[in-house]
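dude i think i finally got it to work??
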Amino acid sequence: MKIQEVRRLLNSESGLEEILTEYQPCFDTIDELMGYLKQDILNGEKELLSAQTTLTGLYGSLITIFKIAQAYKISEEAKQFVLLNEDYEKNNPGIKSLSAAKLDKLTAIKIANWRTLRNIFEGYILAAEKAIITCQSNLKSLKMERAFSNTNPEKF
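look at this
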């Protein structure tokens, strides 16, 4: 999905679901590879390299969307905070202003969908990042085992 399209979709709550649907295959692949790591199925060099490459590609696809979603969440949060405060003051002239804590809670309710989208992307990015590190670590261990079990470790 192009950045312009993501930005357009982030401008409306209905677009958030479309973004999630578009990136569901990425999430599914990360879930699948994480499952393989949990079951210790990825134990060969070829499988680990393939998983690492796939995860790196997925990370690259998701991080941009995450950063855009994070910026939109912050922007929407500020906009809602101001709108809620202005609306309250307009409808309640002469009455004590709402506390910042109350406005924060009301704002949180208004931006819940943007926060959820941002958190979903963040969770999958963190999972991919940890899985990449695990693949790298396992590959290093395999190479060390091979080096120590070989009579001529300098070949590796």
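The two ends are 41 Å apart (CA to CA).
im so relieved honestly
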